[in-house]
Structure prediction request, 421 residues.
Amino acid sequence: MSGVKALAIILGGGKGTRLYPLTKERSKPAVPFGGKYRIIDISVSNCINSDIRQVYLLTQFNSASLHMHISNTYNFDRFSHGFVEILAAEQTLEHSGWYEGTADAVRKNFIHFKTQNPTHYVILSGDQLYRMDIQQFLKNHLDSEAEISIATTRVNRADASGFGIMKADETGRITQFMEKPATDLDISTWEIPSGAYADAPSEKKFLASMGIYIFTAAVMEQALDNALSDFGKEIIPAEIQRRKVQSYVHSGYWEDIGTIRSFFEANIDLTTITPSFNFYDEAAPIYTNQLNLPPSKINQAEIAQSITSEGCVISRAHIRHSVIGVRSVIEEHSELDNVVFMGADYYEKPGEPGPHIGIGKRCRIANAIIDKNARIGDCCHIGVSGKTYPNGEYAAVPGAYVADNIIVIRKNAVIPAGTSI
Prediction:
């Protein structure tokens, strides 16, 4: 595609309240995922694998750890002119406030984008799990002579109420937009046209926006020449009325991992025999920071359908359907079932008083997320009682939080020996 220069803009999201407490001390894109990765690695790797090497990441909350991860991971040689650069909210003579929404964040950074002289902007989300050849998306945009293209995924009627729904004709041109239609609303006229996208499952009759867009550069600058703050709720519906907006149907796996429940389930799905998202694709790897850790050491443990990352020490434990992060230490006779254990940022020095970083002896843990550097004392029982817990802080145990009946042990939390939750 001669003469085409695409610039990628990844939206890092707001405060990440739906992923709290994982976002208490870090931004949403910096949340660890899949044992050794961060959520942001998915979107950045999609760009790199699609030969888009100029990437801006827009964020404004708790961005220190994200800055460190990006600077340590994505370093291009000087001849490629590639970069992954974070643009946090900043005060200028023109703008003195925070980002007010996705569109506002892009608008306030045009001064940086325009220096790259792009012909097209690719807008991506920083909290989704998917693989996409963005060059194919861009080709579809060019071939259809669209001014704006929207990546869509096919959903059934029940799921449609959680998305922005697109109405498109047989050519894929989007003619109408509806934000999260009520479950009792008749939207049968919004079904995918007969014969279009013939490979669609019969029950998935609606097109949902993935929050991924391509704009011709001049069009985006014109579309944002106003005070509107959000792409999905304001910019896109307005532009559909006056421009050619095209649907690009993504047929692969796609998951929004913006809530504790979806984050937990997406992690646990990685432990299945054939996970929905495949990290083992040599043609399109997911990149992350290379920590140069030693191999994991397994001392007579029983591990079934689980992921273990580098630098772990696991001794006589029983682990099932769990994701074990880097530098994880799990002591003797502990049992983990459906656990996302993020590991640690450092190794503890010998002789430190306990509880030590990691999981102590004879613990039983299930249906839980354990954030980094947590210290779980001996004989703790977490999530194995079968109880239903109300959402929010678990008052009886400082450092524990409940969301959708998943117990989250906060980063750096200390859980005393013998604790039962």
Summary: The CA atoms of residues 100 and 229 lie 6 Å apart.
